[in-house]
Amino acid sequence: MQSGNEGTELLKTTGLTKVFGEVKACNGIDLSIAPGEIHALLGENGAGKSTLVKMMFGVLDPSEGEILWKGQPVRIGSPGEARRLGIGMVFQHFSLFEALTAAENIALVLEEKTPIHKIAETARQLSVDYGLPLDPNAMVGDLSVGERQRIEIIRCLLQKPDLIILDEPTSVLTPQEANKMFETLERLKAEGKSILYISHRLDEVKRLCDTATVLRHGKVVRHCVPRDETPSSLANMMVGSDVETVKREGAAPEFGKPLIEIRNLQRPPATPFSIPLRGIDLTVRAGEIIGIAGVAGNGQGEFFEAISGEAVQKSPDVITLNGEKCGTRGISGRRLLGVGFVPEERLGHGAVPSLPLSENMLLSRHQTDRKTMLGAFGYIRNAAVKAASQRVISEMDVRKTAEDPEASALSGGNLQKYLIGRELDRQPSVMIVDQPTWGVDAGAAARIRKALIALARSGSAVLVISQDLDELFEISDSIAVMHDGRLSEPVPIAEATYEKIGLLMGGAEPGHMAFEGVKEEAGA
Amino acid sequence: MDIFQSVLLTIATASTPLLIAAIGELVVERSGVLNLGVEGMMVIGAVCAFAASYLTGNPWIGVLAGILAGAVLSLLFGVLALSFATNQVATGLSLTLLGIGLSGMIGEDLVGRAGERLPNLDIPVLTDIPVIGRLLFGQDPLFYVSIALTAAVMWFLFRTRTGLTLRAIGDNHKSAHALGISVLKYRYLAVMFGGACAGLAGAHLSLVYTPQWVENMTAGRGWIALALVVFASWRPWRVIGGAYLFGAVTIGQLHAQALGFGIPSQLLSSLPYLATIVVLVLISRDRRLTVMNTPASLAQPFVPDR
């Protein structure tokens, strides 16, 4: 525990404000964390959570306000200073180096001149103590996301911090891995360490955290005790209004003929750090939505590239879209069959950040809408392109500041609505989406999910790859799980439970569920 | 035997400047910075080294002047590409153009003057050992510097904490910044080390290889050095192999011309460059090797947000 005066806050902020240009990302935040408590920081994407903790960890300078550490006002000028004070942080997007080993990654933040092999030994010991098995000599690039997070946590613990900041730690874990991490956190709390826990998963906050601070639009909405709240009351505080839940209506619909047929799709790893695809079979019928769950980095990205035609197959028979064998066709060839694709990364993959929306429209549809958008000799019909762009903007309720803004000027949610709408506008008979609502606010996410369900109801086949299990349970007719480049049989939604899907995400074979955890122990 | 020995000696002399310049650029690129100005820094190093040596009559002062000139020019690159986060490719290219132009101006009055050659090492007894004596103990001092430099860089990059930090910055500068590592400080030092090496390589050309000043005397060696770094897939010991392979082809074609093979001399002169292209193609076939060693943040400008 804290030495000395009990009841003093470990960390307290008063009026902490950060201004980016004209936007106040954080606006007068008052927050205090007591020793030995798990404090939740709740809020939607863009509510200012990340900005706030970056100021606490010395990555960003506050524009106004004060941070008190153990009662003393401090100016945290760099992450190094934060660490010296006793603040450790586990980042959401890991701050690891792929081309280095786990031990080297850890050594980088330890200032003393301990040789690497000693660090490796200490790290291994600590990882066993906390039940987070870790091979210190493994190259980070070869590790799964869950394993990478263990390195981050171990690295943080080796610095012996009093306060540990965890930024959305479970977003990349299977439910079982998350449970294991909660045990670790409880243990750290019992040792008297404080934890600032950032999440938007309300049930885990309710279960784990002692106190919570809810942010909305950069301001503190409320301080509360999560155990006294319900997930829906917490959600209302975060969003500021009742959250619309998306429902699939009526009984299980009848499905039509198969529109996506994938037969024994194999793909060698494209880079040393990517996952090979090992014989994937999948059928999606007209009117059906199949969700693909899985922990990030298990081959979902590689799978998407193989279906979208970014990576073509050797034989046309491997992939049949809309009744046409098209394994050897490229992206445009597949789009011409009436297929729509939305990749995971919005900026740089789904859209060119520096081009206006209308030109981004043309870039994806110059082949499929050749007749309307292009004239003789490939002359661009700007009016037709702009009209299509406007149609999507009003259909999907895209909020923008200019007439035809650059893609990068839109918020994540609005750009995602535009990209989904750009494909929906063609009435595709097959739609394939990777992470449809990643980093998108609740309102926009509901809008996107509704649109996908409506598309399926109109008779299209929809394939959704997502790391958000709640989302898949909300919209899918069946859920298949991707693990280590293999795809499980789709589980019909009526039979799917979080536990079942979670075990598949961890690599258990259906029917061999009891094997959970064995692999990890063996690897330690 | 004497011919064989002298061929080996000329190969070593031809390879040394390539090795020095490439090993410097390797450190720069390992930190995630692509400085295409090697040719420019090298030629400035060559002219300054010759000028200082000519004015003072001491070639060692020339060596220091070459190192200093390369480092100063690289500092200009650093200010632009690191502090102002300009496009590294464009900045590097203009550095080369600047270096070539500037060196021509500085060296205008020096063309055709005879300079002092940096004396070869000569240790009685040892140098006189037959066959290997001259090779091991009788070369120019910068030859030994180039080998020591490569060993030192290997040790630094893979055995020291500072070297680890440098490699980490090259792999992911955002993560490095988040850990509190001063990305720009490391990169400035790396860039200046690269500049000093390029300057030293230039000094070798004008004080050892051909002890005189000829305009544009680097003749594309800076570009070869850049290619060698990729050829070596960013690993120091492979740079030695690459530099000597290239040196051997260069010298080989000279001897082939002298022996009067029925091949046009232009074709023979282009051999080293063709060899580089072939080797680069071969190297890029092994993607795993390339990707594992390529500094992932190479040539990406870094702007810390505060």
Automatic annotation (TrEMBL), chain A:
Gene3D superfamilies: P-loop containing nucleotide triphosphate hydrolases. Signal peptide: none annotated. Keywords: ATP-binding, Nucleotide-binding. CDD domains: ABC_Carb_Monos_I, ABC_Carb_Monos_II. Residues 11-242, 260-509 form the ABC transporter domain. One of its GO terms (molecular function) is ATP hydrolysis activity. It comes from the Bacteria. Belongs to the ABC transporter superfamily. This is ABC transporter ATP-binding protein. It comes from Pseudohoeflea suaedae.
Automatic annotation (TrEMBL), chain B:
Keywords: Cell membrane, Membrane, Transmembrane, Transmembrane helix. One of its GO terms (cellular component) is plasma membrane. It comes from the Bacteria. InterPro entries: ABC_transp_permease (IPR001851). The chain crosses the membrane at residues 6-28, 33-54, 60-82, 89-107, 141-158, 188-207, 213-232, 239-256, 262-283. It is found in: Cell membrane. GO terms for molecular function: transmembrane transporter activity. It is a multi-pass membrane protein. PANTHER family: ABC TRANSPORTER PERMEASE PROTEIN, SUGAR ABC TRANSPORTER INTEGRAL MEMBRANE PROTEIN-RELATED. This is ABC transporter permease. The lineage of its organism: Bacteria, Pseudomonadati, Pseudomonadota, Alphaproteobacteria, Hyphomicrobiales.
